[in-house]
Write a structure and sequence with these properties.
Distance between the termini: 40 Å
Largest sheet: 7 strands, mixed
CATH class of the largest domain: Alpha Beta
Bound molecules: uridine-5'-diphosphate, magnesium ion
Number of domains: 2
Structural class: alpha/beta
Number of helices: 10
Order of helices and strands: EHEHEHEHEHEHHEHHH
Radius of gyration: 25 Å
Number of strands: 7
CATH superfamily of the largest domain: Spore Coat Polysaccharide Biosynthesis Protein SpsA, Chain A
C-alpha cells in the first residue's frame, strides 16, 4: 500500500492549458489517439475480470468511438493477471501493466493514466461495482463543455456503519475545506479530458481529489449520479482507516494549495500569535507583581511566558526553513508557480 500523504502539488508545477470558455464543446478526434481510455486498477479480482471485459465490450460497442482499456494489475496474488493476459492476447485494445507488488489503488491508477492514450480518460473499478454502461452518459456530459465529470453513487450499495457514514462525513468535510462541492469524491468512475490529467502526480489516497485539484486549476467540474452495485465476488480491500487517511490527505492538499509558495505565512503567523500570547502573559505577570503584590511563583504565568516565547521563535524559524525548502523544491525541478490558461502565437 502507498503511505504518506504528500502530493506533488503540481498546481504550482505544471503549465496547464485549458480551452477557453465556449470552445470546449466537442472533444477533438485525434488521428493517433483512441477516443476513450478506460483505466482500471485490479487487485485480486480473478472472479471479476472476465465479466468486466464482457461488460466493457457491451458498453463500448454503443459508444461509436475508438477505445482502449488500460488495466493495471496491482500485484495480485490470485489469477487476475493470467486471466487478463489471455484477454489481452486476443484483443489489442486491452493494454496491461503489471506491478511487481501491491502499491495501492492510487499508484495503479496513476500508472494507468500514464499509459493511457485516449482523448478522454475514464477511471473505473474492476469489481463491477461501477457500471460501464454509465460511460456514455459521462462522455455526453463532458461534451457539454466540462473538463471533469465525477460519478456520484447516489444509491451506494456498501455497508452503512463502516462505509456510508464515514464516507458521508468525509465528503462533507472535503466539500467545505476544498470549496468544490461534490457529493461523492470517492466514486472511482469519473471522466476527464486528457489535458486535466497531464502532469498530475498522485500520492497517498489522492486520486479522489483530482476533481478538486482540477477545479482549483480552472477546470469546469460537475457530477452525475451513476449506478452502483454491491460487490458480488471477492472482497473490498479497505476498511474504516481509509477515512483517516483521506482527511489527512485533504489537510495536505489544502496546505499545499494555500501555502506551498509561502509557508512562512502559516508558520510565521502561528509564531507571531505565540509571541503575542507571551507578551500578554508577561504584562499580566508584571501587573500582578507590581500592582497587587502577587509573587511570580504564585501563578503559572512565568511558565507560560517562556513557553510561548520559545514556541513563537521556533515556529518563525521553522517557517524560514520551510521557505528555503520550497525554493529548493521549485527551483531544483524548474517548477512554475503559476498556470497559464491560454497562449496566443506561442507554442
Ligand atoms: N485496488 C487496487 N489496489 C489495492 C486496492 C484496491 O488496485 O491495493 C483496486 C480494486 O481491485 C478495485 C478498486 O481498486 O478495482 C477499488 O477497490 P475496492 O473495491 O476494494 O474498494 P471499495 O469499492 O470497497 O471502496
Ligand atoms: Mg469496490
Amino acid at each position: 500500500m502507498t503511505t504518506g500523504s504528500d502530493i506533488n502539488f503540481s498546481a504550482q508545477a505544471q503549465t496547464l492549458t485549458f480551452a477557453p470558455e465556449g470552445t470546449r464543446k466537442s472533444i477533438a478526434a485525434h488521428p493517433e489517439r483512441p477516443g476513450i481510455s478506460l483505466v482500471i486498477p485490479v487487485y485480486n479480482e480473478e472472479e471479476n475480470v472476465e465479466l468486466l471485459y464482457q461488460k466493457i465490450l457491451d458498453a463500448a460497442e454503443k459508444l461509436n468511438r475508438t477505445w482502449e482499456v488500460v488495466l493495471v494489475d496491482d500485484g495480485s496474488k490470485d489469477k487476475s493477471f493470467e486471466k487478463l493476459e489471455k484477454i489481452a492476447l486476443k484483443d489489442s485494445r486491452v493494454k496491461l501493466v503489471r506491478f511487481v507488488r501491491n502499491f495501492g489503488q492510487t499508484a495503479a491508477l496513476a500508472a494507468g493514466i500514464d499509459h493511457a492514450n485516449g482523448s478522454i480518460i475514464i477511471p473505473m473499478d474492476a469489481d463491477l461495482q461501477n457500471d460501464p454502461a454509465d460511460i456514455q452518459m459521462l462522455i455526453e456530459k463532458l461534451e457539454e463543455g466540462y473538463d471533469c465529470v465525477s460519478g456520484w453513487r447516489k444509491n451506494r450499495k456498501d455497508g452503512l456503519v463502516l462505509r456510508l457514514i464515514p464516507s458521508w462525513t468525509a465528503n462533507k468535510i472535503i466539500s467545505v475545506i476544498s470549496g468544490v462541492s461534490l457529493h461523492d469524491y470517492g466514486c472511482s468512475l469519473k471522466a476527464y479530458r486528457r489535458e486535466v490529467l497531464e502532469g498530475v502526480r498522485l500520492y497517498g489516497e489522492m486520486h479522489r481529489f483530482v476533481p478538486i485539484y482540477a477545479s482549483w486549476m480552472g477546470a469546469k467540474v460537475t457530477e452525475m449520479p451513476v449506478n452502483h452495485y454491491a460487490r458480488q465476488f471477492g472482497q473490498s480491500k479497505y476498511g474504516i482507516n481509509r477515512t483517516v487517511k483521506v482527511v489527512l490527505d485533504l489537510i495536505t492538499i489544502k496546505f499545499m494549495s494555500s501555502y506551498l509558495t509561502k509557508p512562512i505565512y502559516i508558520f510565521g503567523s502561528a509564531g507571531l500569535w505565540s509571541l503575542a500570547a507571551c507578551a500578554a502573559s508577561f504584562t499580566w505577570m508584571c501587573i500582578l507583581k507590581y500592582g497587587y503584590d502577587t509573587s511570580f511563583i504564585e501563578t503559572p504565568l512565568p511558565v507560560l511566558v517562556s513557553m510561548f516565547f520559545m514556541v513563537g521563535i521556533q515556529l518563525i524559524l521553522m517557517g524560514l526553513l520551510a521557505e528555503i525548502l520550497v525554493r529548493t523544491y521549485h527551483e531544483s525541478q524548474d517548477k512554475r508557480i503559476y498556470t497559464v490558461k491560454k497562449k496566443v502565437n506561442l507554442d
